[in-house]
């Protein structure tokens, strides 16, 4: 029974990215606005996956793919995600983990790639400009 088991330190999920209404509203305020930040720095997860990882709503998590990692906030999905599937809205944060391989389409695969997720409660979510600077190797640490 899931409720009786210990949470795992890391789980692997299938990631999808796409646009959201909240993201569109945030874009109207600007990509460096708090509204955009709040809309795009979340990872929608199924409640079963949150329980499996032992993460509470609004806890920061580190999401790592084959090409990079990003810190975002875990939230319980409002969508019809099944267990094992997660969603981060398209944008600078999701782009840090989207593999560049295009399968000869000319566009990266924004859907259906594996990511590891682990709790990162003490790590800070970077702002949009910082994420871009980090991606280009310009962020001073």
Protein described:
There is one protein chain. The chain contains five helices and six strands. The radius of gyration is 15 Å and the shape is globular. With 141 residues, the chain is α/β, with parallel strands linked by helices. The protein has a single domain, classed as Barwin-like endoglucanases (Beta Barrel). The chain has helices spanning 21-29, 34-40, 47-53, 92-95, 128-135; strands at residues 10-18, 42-45, 59-64, 69-76, 85-89, 111-119. The model has no long low-confidence stretch (mean pLDDT 89). The chain is 25% helix and 29% strand. Strand 3 (59-64) and strand 4 form a beta hairpin. A six-stranded mixed β-sheet has the order 2-4-3-6-1-5.
Question: What distinguishing features does this structure have?
Answer:
single chain, alpha/beta, globular, Barwin-like endoglucanases, 141 residues, 6 strands, 6-stranded mixed sheet
Architecture per CATH nomenclature, i.e. the level-2 architecture: Beta Barrel
SSE string, helices as H and strands as E: EHHEHEEEHEH
Question: Can you tell me the CATH class?
Answer: Mainly Beta
Count the beta strands. 6
* Number of distinct helices: 5
Share of residues in strands: 25-35%
Low-confidence stretches: none
Q: Report how far apart the termini are.
A: 43 Å
Rg computed from alpha carbons, rounded to a whole number of angstroms = 15 Å
What does the main sheet amount to? 6 strands, mixed
Mean pLDDT: 89
Number of domains: 1
Structural class by secondary-structure content: alpha/beta
């Amino acid at each position: 029974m899931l409720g009786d088991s210990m949470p795992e330190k890391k789980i692997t999920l299938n990631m999808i990215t796409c646009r959201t209404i909240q993201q569109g509203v945030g874009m109207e305020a600007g990509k460096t606005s708090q509204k955009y930040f709040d809309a795009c720095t979340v990872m929608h997860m199924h409640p079963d996956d949150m329980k499996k990882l032992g993460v509470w709503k609004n806890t920061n998590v580190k999401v790592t793919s084959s090409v990079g990692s990003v810190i975002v906030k875990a939230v319980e999905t409002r969508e019809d995600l099944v267990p094992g599937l997660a969603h981060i809205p398209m944008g600078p944060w999701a782009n840090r983990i989207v593999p560049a391989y295009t399968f000869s389409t000319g566009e990266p695969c924004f859907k259906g790639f594996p990511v590891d997720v682990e709790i990162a409660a003490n790590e800070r979510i970077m702002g949009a400009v910082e994420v871009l600077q980090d991606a280009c190797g310009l962020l001073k640490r």
